[in-house]
Amino acid sequence: MRRLRALALLLLAPLALGQAKPQLVPDVSQSEIEIRYSFTGAQLLLFGAILYPGGRVPTGDAHIAVVVKGPTERIVVREKQKVAGIWMNVESARFRSAPSFYAVASSRPLSQIVDERTAAIYELGLGSLQLSPGSGQSAEVQQRFEKGLIEQKRRTGLYIENPRGVQIRQGVLYRAQIDIPARVPVGEYTAETFLIRGGRVVSGEVRDIHIGKSGFERFVATAAERWSLAYGLAAVLVSVLLGWGGSAVVRRR
């Protein structure tokens, strides 16, 4: 009997340990974002609650970080330099896999709540992105191109880092807002929420988001993808007709 009781305790131990960890219950304001001709961007709200074992909020700081990622893409970054008074592409670096969109918001600056190793594991922060370089250049040159890529994405609003973008109320409820720019790529996105205590990620949850075109924009994108030759010929024909029409109007005046 004692052996059976001991065996039962061993089997139930992982469940008990799992229940001792806090759980996240996240949600997003929009699981689908449609891009129409009048699309000027969107504001994505991420919110939820932290469920602690026994319903008691432990002492000590708890922090939340949310990360929204877009589909990965291959990117070639070119560096321009002035040669004989002319700006030219001199060097380039290729990245096999880089997020087309990346936004992170946290309740405090990430450097204050996680160490570099944890940030690298969960890709928390622009400085911890895993960009998968595809060029055989030196580490110094590759790092320079990585910084250039990140800076370029930041200027276009596709890479965002907000060190105080998450609000936590009563240690349980949290909310964050991520701005989606008008030039956001379409595809499948993920919204990850991380609970951080003592410099470690103790819980995490993921929600899926779809961003796609609708209406006439969707028809044009589908036509360009499925019937590329016909789409190209139609685009050339429309350009010729518009040019001819414009010149005819000018001649009449």
Write up this protein:
With 253 residues, the protein is of the alpha+beta class. The protein contains six helices and twelve strands. It has helices spanning 2-19, 110-113, 116-122, 139-155, 216-226, 228-252; strands at residues 23-28, 32-35, 42-51, 62-69, 72-83, 86-99, 102-106, 159-162, 166-169, 173-180, 187-197, 200-213. The chain has a six-stranded mixed β-sheet with strand order 2-12-11-4-7-8. Strands 1-3-10-9 form a four-stranded antiparallel β-sheet, with no helix packed on it. The chain has a two-stranded antiparallel ribbon with strand order 5-6. Strand 5 and strand 6 (86-99) form a beta hairpin. The N and C termini lie far apart (104 Å). Mean pLDDT is 80; it is low at 1-18 and 215-219.
Main traits of this protein?
253 residues; alpha+beta; 6-stranded mixed β-sheet; 4-stranded antiparallel β-sheet; 6 helices; 12 strands; 40% strand; disordered N terminus
Which H/E pattern describes the elements? HEEEEEEEHHHEEEEEHH
Q: Strand order, biggest sheet?
A: 2-12-11-4-7-8
Approximate shape: flat
Largest β sheet strand count, sense and barrel closure = 6 strands, mixed
**Residues in helices, as a percent range:** 25-40%
| Rg for CA atoms | 25 Å
- The low-confidence parts are 1-18, 215-219
Report mean pLDDT, rounded to a whole number: 80
The total beta strand count reads 12
Structural class: alpha+beta
- Measured by DSSP, the beta-strand proportion falls in 35-45%
Total count of helical runs of at least 4 residues: 6
Give the CA-CA distance, first to last residue: 104 Å
